[in-house]
Each structure stands twice: as C-alpha cells, then as structure tokens.
Amino acid sequence: MKKGVYHKDKYTFSGMLSDEALWTFEFFSKSLADTLSDYLDVMEENHLCIPADDADELFDMLEDISADLRDDYRADCLQLDRFRENILAFYDLAFSLCSDLEDDLSDAPLEAVYYSQVFVQGLKHFLPVMLQSLLMDLPESQKLQQFIEQIQRDFSGLAPLDIHGSRLN
Predict the structure, then answer these.
(1) Mean pLDDT, residues 20-39
(2) Pairing relationship of beta strands 12-14 and 5-7 according to DSSP bridges
(3) Which end of the chain is less crowded, N or C, counting CB atoms within 10 A of the terminal residue's CB?
C-alpha cells in the first residue's frame, strides 16, 4: 500500500490507491455530454432557443477537466485545488444553462422535458459520486476530509432550488 503525500498548502495528493475517480468522471462526463447534446438537438428541431455558446463551453470544460485528471493520474499527483475550481465553474455554468433552457420547457415537446430531467439528474449525482470515488482513490487524511467539506460548502452555494424549494445537492 502506497503512503499518501500531502503537498504543503495545497490540496495536492500523491500515492493514489486506485483510479476510481478518473473513471467515475469519464462516465458522468460522457453521460452528461451525450444527454445535453440530445437535449439541444431536440430544442433546435423544435425551433426553441438554445444558448449554444454556453453549451459549447460546457463541453469544453468537461474535456479540459478530463484531460487534467488523466494527466494527474498518470503523474500520481492529483491536484484537487484545480479540480475544485474547474468543477465548480462547470456547475455554475451548467446551472445557468439549465435555468435558461427551463424557460422554454413550457412550450417544449415531452422529449425535451425528458432530456432536461435526465441532464439535471446527472448533475445531481455527479459530484457526490465523484467525491466518494476520490475517497476510494486517496489514503485517508484530515486534509482530504477538509477538501471534501470545502467543495461541498462551495457547491451548496451554487446549487439552485428545485420546484419544492429544496437544494438540488
């Protein structure tokens, strides 16, 4: 078993025990991108407004985070500060996009509502499962727990309210 190393003053870790979080990210990234793509196609086919620039930026963000994670795992040096910043920026834009698209759902066909709901469900489950996977990949430490708590606090400030007034996280 590798001994984990915490690099001073940053949430940067080495000594990974597995690559569970990498594959978890890849799974959710692909699922979210495919669902969003299908959702946007349905919206476009029905001549409904789609914020294409935001959607393209979301796709790019997922690709960039994925590339960073692959590089980190190859180097056995996971930079969670960068991951936190990037994933929170992704969620901020994703929630904004969902809010913009939601305005057109009242006139949208059932298929668009379906993809919207699947995308939102993916967003709801992505970060908690990703954090669980990170816990499997890294040796237990106080700094890792602090990171998890910090990203959860940061995320709760971004998460919009659902129809019932509950936070989506």
Answers:
(1) 96
(2) antiparallel
(3) N
Query: Could you tell me which of 139, 16, 151 has the C-alpha nearest to residue 90?
Result: 151
| Domain segments of the chain as ranges | 20-158
Contact 72, 84 (CB under 8 A): no
- d(CA 85, CA 165) in angstroms, rounded, equals 26
Q: What is the overall mean pLDDT for the chain?
A: 86
How many Å apart are CA 167 and CA 157, to the nearest integer? 9
Q: What is the pTM of this model?
A: 0.85
Joined together, the tokens standing for residue 2 give: 């590798």
Q: Phi and psi of 136, rounded to 5°?
A: -75, -30
Residue 85: φ, ψ to 5°? -60, -45
